[in-house]
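Allow me, if you will, to draw on your knowledge of protein folds for a short while. I have a record of one protein: its chain in single-letter code and its fold written as discrete structure tokens. Kindly check, if you would, that the fold set down in the tokens agrees with what the sequence suggests. Thank you for your consideration; the sequence and its tokens are set out here:
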Amino acid sequence: MMPLEDETEARRQIGALPYRRLRGGDYAVLLVTSRESRRWVIPKGWPMKGRKPYEAAEQEAYEEAGLVGHIGKRPLGFYLYEKRLKNRDAVLCQVKVFPLEVRKQLNRWPEQHERELRWFAPAEAADAVSEPGLAAIIRASLKRDGEAQL
């Protein structure tokens, strides 16, 4: 029996890769913990009706980490992961990742007490995330000045 198409197709999500430039040309990347498994991830979520994908990614960064900045309109790439739903099922998700140059972090935001946040060097951020595709995007996008793909 053939599986139904919607069972095998990845559900679409959008995410922001928050970064800031440091003196000397290096970068720092902000990761947040997921609410359920407490893994290090980027702010991400489902597309939002009436918003372009990059606008929805910018909104997720605000809700999950209180970040305000400049969101890129072109994605850096995408990665796949298995999301555990509340009913314990898992669905395959494809996350389109947009760069977010952080200008400031607010003192209060909606999910402030639900997640941990931490700034990482790009190599450490890539090592901290569990998804190989996300690690590859971080490594490819945030190199020393002049080489960055942002």
